[in-house]
Amino acid sequence: MARTKTDKSIWMIFFESVKIFTMNLHKFLLYMAFPVLGTILGTGLIFGLTFWFNNNIDRILIKYPALDNMTSLTIVIILLALPGLLILLKAFGDFLIAYGALNSMAEGAITTGRVYDFPAHNAVVKSRILTFIMLWILFGIFTAFASFPLFWVLGGIFFIYFILIFQVFTFDENVSAINCFKESLQLIKGKFARTAILLIIQGLILFLVYHGLTVLFEVCRLNEVLTRVFSNWAMSLPLDRINAIYQNFNILITPDMIAKYILSNMTGFIALGFTLPLRSISWTLWYKNLAAFTENTERQPQKKQKKTAQKKLDKNILKRAMQDDEEF
Q1: Tens digit of each residue's pLDDT, the chain (328 residues)
Q2: Are 115 and 28 in contact (CB under 8 A)?
Q3: Helices and strands counted in the chain (H then E)
Q4: What is the DSSP letter of 36?
Q5: Closest C-alpha to 280, from 292, 291, 269, 272
Q6: Distance CA 227, CA 256 (A)
Q7: Cβ distance 198 to 163 under 8 Å?
Q8: C-alpha span between 166 and 101 (Å, rounded)
Q9: Nearest C-alpha neighbor of 52 from the set 80, 83, 74
Q10: Within the chain, what is the greatest distance between any pair of CA atoms?
């Protein structure tokens, strides 16, 4: 089916989103700085401080013998973990809110050409926080089922159909969490292949950014420092017990392996977080395009019905006029 003027190509959507993202790059990066880096910092503080306490517990107990009981040790561990936990909860909460707020920012950038007033965009989500939480819970349940190998194909298909749930939430104030999924599916129905291609393009961008960060960390030798830190932490884990469980599968887990895994996931999270604005802009443009296209196609039958009804009315008026003339 040929595209109408309201139905843009995915390439127009993608390049327009890149343009908006690059023109407001510093603002989007600033907005995502705390959600991304704060999540990493909070997690690092939790494990770092508890790791330090575990390694120095003998000296601490000698100096402070009053702590030599389970209750006191538990309280100390909680207090050490609390600062990192508070930072983690705040940062990760902001990260989740960004999935809705960035759509509002994207619309502002599209209509006014500017990105500003972050609290106002956050308020779009916070004013309906219960619906937003339910939306994330439902998405989490869906992701959990889709993560099973038997459901990978079906889960991947429905993931594409549900890709616009956060845009539906942002731009339809009266929609429920469940209806976000339904409306996303309805919008993408008939546009599945093009939506999938746009998703693949975004995936390639994420892949390039991830590997770009990996190269940057290697050039700055940051990967060596972080690998050493993570490896030292992993040595405190009961790896002998873990390897005993997996010995029948010929799997040997080492501190270096764990360190590289953590570094890879941290790099991936940074790439995912700082490219989230680009994806939000793309999906907002795609949502607006599909919503406009759907509205346009729904109007056409209504116009035809109105024209048909008008023709019938005109015929009836003409027929009555002719009958009146004959009677006269």
Answers
A1: 444 445 788 999 999 999 999 999 999 999 999 999 999 999 999 999 988 888 888 888 888 888 888 888 889 899 999 999 999 999 999 999 999 999 999 999 988 888 888 999 999 999 999 999 999 999 999 999 999 999 999 999 999 999 999 999 999 988 999 999 999 999 999 999 999 999 999 999 999 999 999 999 999 999 999 999 999 888 888 888 888 877 777 788 888 999 999 999 999 999 999 999 999 999 999 999 998 866 655 555 554 555 554 555 445 544 554 555 455 4
A2: yes
A3: 15, 0
A4: I
A5: 272
A6: 7
A7: no
A8: 9
A9: 80
A10: 121
Q: How far apart are CA 101 and CA 21, in angstroms?
A: 15
Residue 11 DSSP SS3: helix
- Return all residues near 323 (Cβ < 8 A) that are at least 6 apart: none
pTM of this prediction?
Answer: 0.84
Q: What's the token pair of residue 88? A: 């983690």
CA angle 107, 111, 112 (to 5 degrees): 110
Contact criterion met (CB below 8 Å) for 169 and 180? yes
Concatenate the DSSP letters of all residues of 227-273 into one string.
HHHHHHHHTTS-HHHHHHHHGGGT----HHHHHHHHHHHHHHHHHHH
What is the rounded CA–CA span in Å between residue 149 and residue 33?
34
Rounded distance between C-alpha atoms, residue 230 and residue 221, angstroms: 15
The structure tokens listed for 20 are 């908006």
b or e along 155-192 (b: 16 or more beta carbons within 10 Å of the residue's beta carbon)? beebebbbbbbbbbbbbeeebebebbbebbbebbeebe
Query: Is 182 in contact with 165 (CB distance < 8 Å)?
Result: no
Q: How far apart are CA 111 and CA 21, in angstroms?
A: 14
- Cα 207-212-214 angle, rounded to 5 deg: 95
CA distances from 291 to 140, 186, 328 (A): 26, 10, 55
| Both tokens assigned to 246 | 């997996």
